[in-house]
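Slide 14.
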Amino acid sequence: MKYTKIKIYFLLFIFGSFICACVPKYNPNAGGYIDTNKSTDDNDRSFSPFYVYEDFPSSNNHYAPSGWMGDVANLDFDSSYTQDTQKGRTCLKIKYVPEGIKQWAGVYWQHPVNNWGDKNGGYNITGAKKLTFWAKGAQGNEVITEVKIGGISGKFSDSDVAWLKELKLTREWKQYTIDLSKSDLSSISGGFCIVFSKKDNPRGCTVYLDEIRYE
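Slide 15: predicted structure.
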């Protein structure tokens, strides 16, 4: 009987250790949540892809497209579009109609949801060297005014910001890269941001995005 109890306690300890190892932990020094299954050593090349968007739904997705900005009524957002994806079953389809007063609109992928720097969140993505994503336009010559990571300010501000501007798309899928090799990724609440403007798209635009991830 005594042996059986010891055996049960041992099994519970092993199971509990496994659960703790799989749950993202909060890093008080970095000010963000970190996936402990991913490397945080800059010299370690084994960093696993950290997805903003892989598929819908996917347990690998991080951040939520909750930070709508500008003329939000002029954006039509489909996170589960199934036709002609770059990879997997779904991709993102975003349509912008330039009819609003502000003449621009955009979306921030945030952690946690609706975090504009007033919530203690974000991920520690130290070890990533770049953010890559695939994009194309419905007609070709559509322009993404800005794509960026980080940049959220406030009490719990992002540790860095990096961006690309004025990306002219083609009708074919093309991969784009934001260099993060010198960025401080210790606390990133704004995992991805995309902006469209009337200046760059006077007749509006429809774009598709897929495989948005840190590498």
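Speaker note: The chain has a mean pLDDT of 85.
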